[in-house]
Design a protein that fits this description.
Number of helices: 2
Largest sheet: none
Strand content: under 5%
Number of strands: 0
Order of helices and strands: HH
Distance between the termini: 26 Å
Shape: flat
Length: about 25
């Protein structure tokens, strides 16, 4: 859980892709 918190726990609509894609 602590290793992949962004994949399983996504508070934002793609926190990683949001940097490249502003949706």
């Amino acid at each position: 859980m602590a290793e992949k918190p962004q994949l399983h726990f996504d508070p934002y609509p793609h926190s990683i892709q949001d940097r490249t894609r502003p949706h």
